[in-house]
Amino acid sequence: MKPELYACVYAAEFPSQAMLRLRPDLQSLPIAVLDGRPPLEEVCSMNRSARRLGASQGMTRLEAEALVVQHGGTDQGLRLLSRSLEGESAARAVMLECAAIFSPRIEQASQGTACAFVLDIAGTERLFGPPRALAERLRTALLAAGFRASVAVSANFHTARILAASSRGITVVPPGEEAQFLSGLPLALLDMQPDHAETLAIWGIRTLDELAALPQDELTARLGQGATTLRNLARGAYMHAFQPQEAAFALREFCEFETPVEQVDSLLFVGARMLDSLIQRASTRAMSLARVDLDLALEGNSTHRLVLRPALPAVDRKFLLKLMQLEIAASPPSAAVLSLALSAQAAQSSKVQLGLFAPQTPEPSRLDVTIARLKAIAGEDRVGSPVLEDAHLAGAFHMTDFRVEPSPAIEGNRQPRMALRRLRPPLTVRMVLKADQPDLFFDGRQSYRVSTCFGPWRSSGCWWSSGDWDSDEWDVLAQSQDCTPLACLLVMDRANCEWRLEAFYD
Amino acid sequence: MSSRSSSALRLEIEHALERSFPAALTPAHRTIHETVATGIAEVDELLEGGLPAGAISEINGPESSGRTTLALSFLAQRTAAGQVCAWVDADDAFDPESAAANGINLRQLLWVRCRKSGIPIRQRPSTKPFAQLDQALRATDLLLQAGGFAAIVLDLGDTAVEHARRIPLATWFRFRQAADRARTCLVVVAQDGCAQSSAAVALECAALRPITAGDTVLRGFHFEVRRERQRFSPIVIGQKKPPARVWPAAGAWDMEQRA
Q1: What is the ipTM of this complex?
Q2: Contact assignment for A406 to B82 by CB distance below 8 Å
């Protein structure tokens, strides 16, 4: 039979850890997390500094606020945050992904407010070394992801779980010594029924080794079959059918702010940490970020969505952060931000083959930043490549994102064509007609005498929609009062009976 | 009699004439500057090859003088070669249909439309012209710094001369340095010269006469282009008038010319 070996990672006070992971500015402060419906909220989790101040689980909001006042206000004293289940879910996924680096077989073993996973690490010695080395690397990886967790390694699933929950740091149990390591631990570590706990307390049984020392038959006769399970657990001999869960690869981070955030810098400060985490997780799978969606929950129950689309999948933190900053600057949220969620799509890292004789083109990542900056200057929809509409309406086009794509050289010798310079919006002019033809027009500054006109060229379309047009076009050669020649395109809007200067020939 | 080589003889003569004519018999080194064809034979002939690469070129003239057509023709050559270009449009006057008719590959063109004011160009208050100008200059600066663009057109064609001339000289110096470093042709389309000494080439455009078909259809235009300045061309002694050429441009709809 294949020898079994399990490692359990146990992150205590997970609600507070999940909140502080992305907020390094709060990590040195005493933090208590409140859970429940107001006004009946209770403290469900806290960090070590808060515990030192006297905070404890089950404390009501009033009691916790009394601690705040007692220790000199919110700046230095206890800070109270609301629990974020969505943030915990995202943090749990990150923790699971960290653990998945070391073993593909993982079972969740969370209890209460703690988050715990048990990894089947049998046969990983050749990859990660002896169990203690693996445990150290596992703990370091979790620490880098922002989690303080204890790790216990044992040949018995439940022993590893109980030891991880009861100790700090790393515990490695040699095979066959499970009972010794479990001795002295309190009975509360076992998930037992209340009547069993009461009976054992009446008998004076306080620790696991005391429970393990009881005779099995007599214990079963008095407490039933469940007592046998408890005794085996206390001896470190209870067998477990491992049920591995598949970690879904979803790049998502979530952070809820304790107060609405109005400053972009504060948003970026948190966003940078979240982006780091996404990059780190994508990099462990040798992938890059092809698209990052930012979902901002705003005050007033509205949301604001921004999308980062680098030209090539990237893992460059500075580049992605700059894109994020420019994207937020180009379309800032309309109200203060309550929470920030980042979700990313991973793609294969880009490889660009440059050619010796290929024309020089802008570097994709640098071009992305440049275009984002241009959009911040000129406007979101005013930078890109024009695409002509397949329509009869003159001058119809729309803008698309500018992408540098390899384009083969083509024959470029064409005769030049007279270009138009459009007036956007067109300028309404006052027209004087002579024999039904333009003779004199005034553009608001000066008048022009028409010397020659060609037309009219009648066009109409889209009569079935609101974008209909019906107009006569005239190509006009005119002279201003100071004898400056002008060639222009004048349009008579037949629907509104007005003349417009649409464009100049240039 | 000892035979002397021609080079030794040349050195001896140059040494003797050193005080009056330094390096009398050694031809001066001539730097070959890279030029890029505009696609209009007459203009290329005038410019001895085309617009200089890595420098500022000015195309000046009033409305309907052919400056936009010339700039579009130049960009068409660049995009046809598979290169990437940009059009910084201070007054949002660029017409994509004209660009396509001139042969520009629109997918290779980045168009920056400075923020719209909602007021027609000729009705805008003349006291607040600098917001769009500032945007255009900042956009040009960013594109030059980004590098990789073969040509950038800064279109100030509808910007009043008095406003365009107020662009600081330091800005043009910076553009010249950046264009040189990135080997980008920066083409400034304006009503009158504004880049001053930073421009390597300054062309002055004017409309000559229309090409018509039976007085019913405008088929094109004859434009005149004068070379006002060309920094790297040799000085021709005795030349009083700037050299000029006439070039034709057909209408985009002229199927006869198109065929």
Answers
A1: 0.85
A2: yes
Domain ranges, ordered by start, for chain B: 30-258
Tokens of A55: 């905070």
Alpha-carbon gap, residue B166 to B188, rounded angstroms? 15
Q: What is the pLDDT of residue A105?
A: 92
Q: What is the Cα–Cα distance from A194 to A485, expressed in whole angstroms?
A: 100
Give the pLDDT of residue A73.
Answer: 52
Cis ω before A104 (30° cut-off from 0): no
CATH number for the segment(s) A6-179? 3.30.70.270
Q: Which CATH architecture has domain B30-258?
A: 3-Layer(aba) Sandwich (3.40)
Most A CBs within 10 A among B122, B189, B247, hence the mutation to make, goes to B122
Residue B140 tokens, joined: 């040009």
What the block records as the tokens of A157 is 């699933």
Burial class from Cβ neighbours inside 10 Å (0-12, 13-18, 19+) for residue A334 reads: exposed
Nearest to A287 by CA among A298, A278, A297, A296: A278
Higher pLDDT, B251 or A407: B251
Residues of A in contact with B82 (CB under 8 A): 358-359, 406-409
Of the candidates A85, A82, A159, A140, the one whose C-alpha atom is nearest the C-alpha of residue A115 is: A85
User: What is the maximal distance between C-alpha atoms in chain A?
Assistant: 121
From-to residues of CATH 3.30.70.270 in chain A: 6-179
- Tokens matching residue B33: 């500057």
Residue B142 with chain A: CB contacts under 8 Å? 370, 373-374, 377
Choose among A286, A280, A330: nearest CA to A304: A330
- Is the Cβ–Cβ distance between A35 and A42 less than 8 Å? yes
Residue B29, token pair as written in the block: 């080194």
Architecture of domain A249-405: 2-Layer Sandwich (3.30)
Contact across the interface for A427 and B122, Cβ inside 8 Å: yes
Q: Which residues does chain B have within 8 Å of residue A484's beta carbon, measured at their own beta carbons?
A: 62-63
In whole angstroms, what is the distance from residue B166 CA to residue B3 CA? 67
Q: Nearest CA of chain A to the CA of B30: how many Å?
A: 27
Phi/psi for A176 (5° steps) reads 90, -10
Q: In whole angstroms, what is the distance from residue A119 CA to residue A4 CA?
A: 11
Q: What is the pLDDT of residues B52-73, one digit of tens each?
A: 999 999 999 999 999 999 999 9
Q: Identity (one letter) of the amino acid at A452?
A: T
